[in-house]
């Protein structure tokens, strides 16, 4: 059985899990016990895997920590790794996303922040450089702020091209760069913004999460504020694929790391309810790129359930067979060792789960 590390970021600290020989998870933590952990990156491109954690202290403020021994010890830079230049008259509120790039750029790591900005590290996440081109994009001043604030919450890299990167902004939409972040273009054709007078604007959509297909890197899956979408041209245009789901609202989407056409979502009712449909704990999987969806519930609670999965709390690992994981606002984390066909509870009674990451180490 593959040795997998499971990272669980919560509103009050980070918990790390390792799977034993019998498949039982053993957890340590909380690490950073009085800090909200909104982002975790597991960088397996290195000879020794590196954990990168975006933690937010209500007293000391936000910071990025790193560990090269799987959480036994942590390093924090003497100066903030992520900080806004003085001329922006802006301060960092939190780091929403830490994303190691593909194998073609072994030291490149991206960080998305609130306020909505992007930072780039070329030394494996030790220091980060402000990506001024996105901040100075003429549309940025017109971006809104979603319920969770305005943030660059998703960064998608291309395994074929280290200079191709996609950033998703709360109430800003999808932006693409083909030159390593030197320039950006909005890329929201077909995405609906039902809350705006023009429901199909050039930008301003409330994108919740994006995942890239394993077989075809030009295929992307997107969970919108109302609508699940697919792009077959690297985000240039989007098509709705939510038919067959009990609700097209939701926060999270994840893709299988090796099987093309396979993706996972966790639907949520829109409007004033914002619970899972029928108050049932389920994940939905497509095996045909969104043409159909299957409810996955074996091993999940059968009684009424009120745990919502947030945007970064549904993920896959790279094991064989692939593991799927989700955490919810009830403080529960569930894992599947068979690509979602069955589930088991990893841990319960944690603080709100904000993000989940897992990888073979």
UniProtKB/TrEMBL annotation:
SUPFAM superfamilies xref list: Oligoxyloglucan reducing end-specific cellobiohydrolase
UniProt-listed GO biological process terms: xyloglucan metabolic process
Naturally occurring in which organism (per UniProt): Actinacidiphila glaucinigra
Protein name per its UniProtKB record: Glycosyl hydrolase
């Amino acid at each position: 059985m593959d040795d997998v590390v499971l990272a669980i970021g919560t509103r009050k600290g980070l918990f790390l899990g390792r799977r034993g020989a019998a498949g039982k998870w053993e957890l340590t933590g909380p690490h950073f016990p009085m800090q909200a952990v909104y982002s975790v990156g597991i960088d397996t491109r290195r000879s020794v895997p590196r954990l990168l954690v975006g933690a937010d202290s209500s007293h000391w403020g936000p910071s990025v920590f790193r560990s090269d021994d799987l959480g036994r010890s942590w390093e924090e830079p003497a100066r903030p790794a992520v900080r806004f230049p003085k001329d922006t008259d802006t301060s960092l509120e939190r780091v929403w996303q830490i994303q190691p790039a593909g194998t073609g750029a072994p030291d490149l790591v991206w960080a998305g922040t609130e306020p909505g900005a992007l930072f780039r590290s070329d030394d494996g996440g030790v220091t980060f450089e402000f990506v001024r081109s996105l901040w100075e994009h003429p549309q940025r001043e017109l971006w809104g702020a979603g319920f969770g604030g305005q943030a660059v919450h998703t960064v998608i890299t291309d395994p074929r091209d280290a200079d191709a990167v996609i950033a998703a902004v709360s109430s800003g939409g999808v932006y693409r760069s083909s030159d390593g972040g030197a320039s950006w273009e909005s890329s929201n054709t077909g995405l609906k913004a039902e809350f705006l007078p023009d429901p199909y604007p050039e930008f301003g959509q409330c994108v919740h999460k994006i995942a890239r297909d394993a077989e075809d890197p030009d295929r992307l899956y997107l969970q919108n504020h109302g609508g699940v979408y697919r792009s077959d041209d690297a985000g240039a245009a989007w098509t709705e694929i939510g038919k067959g789901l009990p609700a097209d609202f939701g926060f999270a989407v994840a893709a299988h790391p090796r099987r093309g056409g396979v993706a996972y979502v966790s639907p949520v009712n829109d409007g004033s309810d914002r619970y899972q449909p029928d108050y049932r704990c389920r994940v939905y999987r497509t095996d045909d790129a969104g043409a159909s969806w299957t409810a996955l519930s074996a091993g999940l609670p059968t009684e009424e359930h009120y745990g919502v999965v947030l945007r970064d709390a549904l993920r896959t690992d790279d094991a064989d067979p692939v593991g799927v994981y989700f955490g919810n606002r009830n403080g529960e984390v569930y894992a599947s060792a068979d690509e979602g066909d069955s589930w088991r509870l990893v841990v319960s009674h944690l603080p709100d789960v904000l993000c989940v990451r897992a990888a073979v180490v």
